[in-house]
């Protein structure tokens, strides 16, 4: 894998987050040249920002979209403006990147969904719908952009920096309870997702697929 990524140009959007940061670090460790633009350089909510960024860059070998800010909740309880903002951030953010990204032939684009697309939750209906939409988007893009490969990674419960902002005792109790119900008996780490993303970037025979990395959450 390291040989396949040596000196490759990689863009990780959302590298300031737990999963994005771990992904960028993993690409660097494998020898890639990694770009980690901040929101001031590439704002996925702004069409003109996305277009201008890619117009100013040489084609990338691999692009990863790990950026999204999205509230979630039941349909009856989530304000419509918040619901539209969530869709705009996570789904249309990826859509804008796919629309403008300059990717080398036989390179890859990897999107981020989530296991709620396969295992709905009554308190996160919108998030499950957005994740399912992203997976469908990737399958269609795999045909539209061929031979560029387009895939999705679907994480389960991951111990990210955002979750670490909660009270340590409450967070640990939540993780302990979740781990008891997972076949692997632990919650995921950002590095678990990064490994799956690198697999999709380096395997030339994977496109239009969703790799679920959830500790067995969809079957447990």
CATH superfamily: NAD(P)-binding Rossmann-like Domain
Count up the domains: 1
Which class do the helix and strand fractions yield?
Answer: alpha/beta
Our measurement of the CA-to-CA distance between the termini, rounded to an integer number of angstroms, reads 31 Å
State the total count of DSSP E strands.
Answer: 6
Q: Could you tell me the radius of gyration in angstroms? A: 17 Å
The low-confidence runs, each spanning 5 or more residues with pLDDT under 50, are: none
Strand content: 15-25%
CATH architecture: 3-Layer(aba) Sandwich
Could you provide a short overview of the structure?
This protein has 220 residues and is an alpha/beta fold. Helices cover 42% and strands 16% of the residues. It has a single domain (2-158, 191-211), classed as Rossmann fold.
Question: What does this protein look like?
Answer:
There is one protein chain. The chain has 220 residues and is α/β, with parallel strands linked by helices. It has one domain: Rossmann fold (3-Layer(aba) Sandwich), CATH 3.40.50.720. 42% of the residues lie in helices and 16% in strands. The protein is built from 7 helices and 6 strands; from the N terminus they run αβαβαβαβαβααβ. It has helices at residues 2-5, 18-29, 47-55, 80-100, 125-144, 168-180, 190-202; strands at 9-13, 33-35, 60-65, 103-112, 149-155, 210-213. A 6-stranded parallel beta sheet has the order 2-1-3-4-5-6, sandwiched between helices. Helix 4 (80-100) links the parallel strand 3 and strand 4. Helix 2 packs across helix 7 (190-202) and helix 4 (80-100) packs parallel to helix 5. The longest helix is centred in the middle third of the chain and has 21 residues, at 80-100. It is globular. The mean pLDDT is 93.
